[in-house]
Amino acid sequence: MDDLLQRIEQKEAELIALTQDLIRFPTINPPGEAYAPCAHYIGDRLAKRGFDVRYIRALGTPGDSDLYPRINVIARKEGSNPGPCIHFNSHIDVVEVGNGWTKDPFSGAVEEGKIYGRGACDMKGGLAASIIATESYIDHHPDFAGAIEISGTCDEESGGYGGVAYLAKQGFFDKDRVDHVIIPEPLNKDRICLGHRGVWWAEIETHGHIAHGSMPFLGDCAVRHMGAVLEEFEQKLYPALAKKQTTMPVVPPGARQSTLNINSIHGGQSEEFDGLPAPCVPDSCRMVIDRRFLIEEKLDQVKSEITELLDDLSYNRSKFSYQIKDLFEVQPTMTDQSQPVVKAVSAAISDILDKEADYVISPGTYDQKHIDRIGKLKDCIAYGPGILDLAHQPDEYVGIADMLDCAKVMANAIHRLLNQNQH
Fold it and tell me: Is 80 exceeded by the pLDDT of residue 179?
């Protein structure tokens, strides 16, 4: 094992260059730029190492078009003998750049042991670490038993429907094909992420009656009705959510309760013009809510807490009426600590970092939801380099030393999982 770790150490310059190359693909989602060249870069590299490479376009998924095709890459290396399959899944898409950068977001600048760029932390540093770990392991154990897969997938930042969800529906995460999955999301090198909270997005619309703005008494203001909804939330819902606590080790601690975010509110006329609005009483107001819930909660209960408040307003408030539309829902998931991938990565962290692994749950969802729900594969975790708080921030970076350590942990875990009878 020492020889394998030394081999990874000697690949530091290669790891840096690989991470820089990946950052330089501006794979911004939306709309889904540079997916194909980034996927082909990954595939070309792994094909040269003897991997069987497939490119899968997620036809018909949200955002897919000839201009912005949802191209995913899966590379598989078969060992010399049958055995389990380990899959490293990384998303290649990144969020918009935003303001406040002091570095070129797509240059991959290196300063003081850090690589800067959009996606450096979330999660091209993790992708690079998994590639280096896998290549190093294969070089060190060319006669390994089993199989190793590496994927670069689309659209995780917008739900994963053009990436892991599509691939899972095609059978790429079925149990007869894959045994263990590691998703190198940025969660710190000593943490194993077992899963995530649940989420329900919905749009609430309150109704009114249009009239002249100088005579609002002749109309019915939908915005005022929405104001009544917000007041109910403040007085009843938010205090109730604060009392809901979980035993899940969610980080940060503030996310160990149920939460509700008001994502957006819009009422009345469109603001997509430069002139003055017409004087009208708004007959519609729409609000998008983002409800995060705990493994101890049931989704129908989560929804009923909202609809019961709205129904009470319908009964008690004059002319109040509403519609509610589901937009997105994901059940909470938490991998059991007895699963082989958890035990292998935990032991690897102990070996490499000389400390016990910290088990955490993500406050938001990531692609484990599709591997669990569609692929029915429970032996899945997130583990990778980077500080989660840096994701989506200006001057995002990943530490080079952290990537090296994570690559060592990954290689150690590969060895354990492919040789389970020896541990």
Answer: yes
Counting beta carbons within 10 angstroms of the beta carbon of residue 132, is it exposed (0 to 12), middle (13 to 18) or buried (19 or more)? Answer: buried
Predicted TM-score (pTM) of this structure: 0.91
| CA–CA dist 15, 4 (Å, integer) | 15
| Average predicted confidence (pLDDT) for the chain | 96
104, two tokens: 């070129």
Backbone angles phi, psi at 410, to 5 degrees: -60, -45
CA distance linking residue 142 with residue 72, whole number of Å: 27
CATH number of 2-196+333-422: 3.40.630.10
Q: List strands edge to edge, sheet with 110-111.
A: 110-111, 114-116, 397-399
Judge contact between 75 and 47, C-beta under 8 A.
Answer: yes
Q: Is the pLDDT of residue 86 over 90?
A: yes
In Å, how far are 34, 88, 153, 194, 200 from 332, measured between CA atoms? 32, 22, 22, 11, 11
Q: What is the pLDDT of residues 360-405, one digit of tens each?
A: 999 989 999 999 999 999 999 999 999 888 989 999 999 999 999 9
Distance between CA atoms of residues 417 and 244, nearest Å: 37
CATH 3.30.70.360 fits 198-330, yes or no: yes
